[in-house]
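Cross-check.
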Amino acid sequence: MLNRLRLTALWIALIISFSLAVVACGDAPEDAGIPARPTATAAPNMQPTAAIPDMPAQPTSEPGPTSTPIPIEKPSAVAPTSTPVPPNLDVERLSNLGMELLAKFTKNHSPRESGSDGERAAAEFISAYLEDRGYRVEFQPVEVDYIAWSEDFVSLIGDGMLNLRGVPLAQTARDNVAGSLVYVGRAFEEDIPDDGLEGVIALIERGEITFEEKVSRVADAGAVGAIIYNNERGNFRGALQSGGPIPAVSLSRQQGEQLLRLIEDEPGLEARIKIEATLLDSQNVIAELDNQATECGTLILGGHYDSVADTQAAGDNGTGVASLLVMAEELAKAHYDDGQPLPYAVRLVFFGVEEIGLFGSKHYVDELSQREQEDIIAMFNFDAMGKGNASVLGSEGIVNRTIEYAADNGIDLNRSDGSAGFGSDHAPFIDANIPALFFFGDDFSIINSPEDVLEQVDPNVMGINMTVGLGMLQHFECKIQG
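Predicted model, tokenized:
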């Protein structure tokens, strides 16, 4: 019996020792570094500008991080996994506020096509909302000389003729011209007929010399228009180096070769090139609170408020508008009611005419003086936050700290590598060497379509991005100029 008791005690001691060892291993601290870098696969048509049918997307690499030091305090290290961070309560609160405001905005201000009366009405709503919450608001006029998409850029004259899908070259002349089609090869000097090209439209093959040289040479010979067809599959987006003397369009190789066969069968075949621009009047809405620390620099919160036609545009970019307005109210409360102003100024900018080429944000940056550009600490852009994972990309230093901040506060924020190219209002700031951060949702499957409606919006994407955006404002310091 005694031996049995001794044996039992020995087993109990061994079990207790083993259990303590397991617990100690479970509590061992881990390295608290930057979290692993997840990546998001971006949709190929993220570019939110008006797409040209049958044209391949033109991805542009996200600009690299600026060499200017970013004045951010590094947040504390990510908590060890053995000490889980509780869910962030602000995400749900801000999600609900954002969704309530988004429902009102999309009901009364959809669509809001670039440069339209609907866009202007949306701007006035934004202005009134901010003024009611203590902001000084101004409209910055934006004029855009815009060539709207048309099926009639280039056409053949006559019944039952081939349907052409031309694309105007950038900086081409605007005009409505017609004339006989004459093939001139690649528009070398020796390709131009001795009797010139007076009153004709020149059909040119792409390759070997610049578009500028091709178009200028046929124009000097008297041509009234130029059609350049591709030497590879598909069409292309060409650009002249300066304002073109005559209207010029591009065609696919297949359509160019079809025209060549038609010219052989029907000499004197006539074509028309019609490129007409529309002057769009738009505006950026700029808002600031009084009594901010403007001597310490400015951080910009921005996003566009226009849309394409025939859509509610709830995700792109009603979510950005609603989120910016909710954040504006949070900042006003902290500034005026709680007496907790930030050590620098915050400026809200709602950009117009984004959907057709980022014209609002480009104009805003172009109008800044060199000193004003240098005073900008960073720019946060909120766009297309309707579906997918709440995500961020931009200048590397800010992205790293933002991902750390989210993890520290129990927020699941995705880091995107931006490899598919992203066209949104942060891009002109990065081009001007201003650090920028882009908050978005990584499912772009319905943007710029009639399916982009309120019912498709996941409010959690807005809530996460707002919470992180507001939280990151506490991690910047006064930017003292030398």
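The first strand starts at residue 135 and ends at 146. The longest helix spans residues 2-26. Passed to J.P. for a second look.
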